[in-house]
Amino acid sequence: MKELPKRIIFGVLFAAIVVVGTVVLPPLFHLLMAFAIAWTLHEFFAMSIGKGGFPAERILAILSAELLYAFLVLYKTGIITQFSLIAVPFIPVFLLMIIPIWHKDHSNHGKLAYIFAGLGYIGLPLSLVPVLQYHSGEQDGWLILGLLLTIWVSDVGAYFIGTALGQKPNSIKLAPAISPKKSIWGLIGAVIFGIGAAIAFHYLGVFDWPVWHCVAIGALASLGGLLGDLVESMWKRYFGVKDSGNLIPGHGGLYDRLDSAIIALPIITVYLAAAGLLL
Question: Angle at Cα 62 formed by Cα 108 and Cα 36, nearest 5°?
Fold first, then answer.
């Protein structure tokens, strides 16, 4: 199958899975998020450490992120009322820190830093999704879908405007040492499309915040998404890989598809919390 048709087919399939999981069968979203957390961390560890190194530590890192996600779901739904139980997801982190003491070979232990990097950079942000997903104990699939679409629409704007105007010799590049094609025009396109998407979702009733907050959310989604893309590009360039994996034919790995959301969603969460818009 040629590359473009493959990208379109599997891109539509990926989008359909997200839509079904967020608004058609909301309980399915928890399974999708659990898989996304585990697999994205798996791809990052495979990219940074290799396929076989530190298996116990990888499992503990993934377990910690999964437990934090599960705790936040149960807490936001009112099943768990004691916030102190948030300590439980950090037990695997403690074990992760001490288990390497008893390894027979310590010559390669510098790579353990990537376990903690993946946990803090990927596991923690994805685990915080329930903070956005629930309002007054009720799951809001349309909200999380709207935020994801805002991020992805801004990606589209960055690509088209950046391709059309940002590849000229005098165009200003954002991070030429990491991603030579990303330009200031791509950033402008991302912000325009992101704000436009957020305002559209406001008038469609998906975002019930005042419109000026939606403008801010659109801008933050765009900036956070672009930063997420650049951060992944930095990692991939450092490790000498083109894609994080091959889970989605024509698109690469799951990390390749979630890189924008990994930074954008936490930034949006902080903004909404600071503005008193999280319930």
Answer: 125
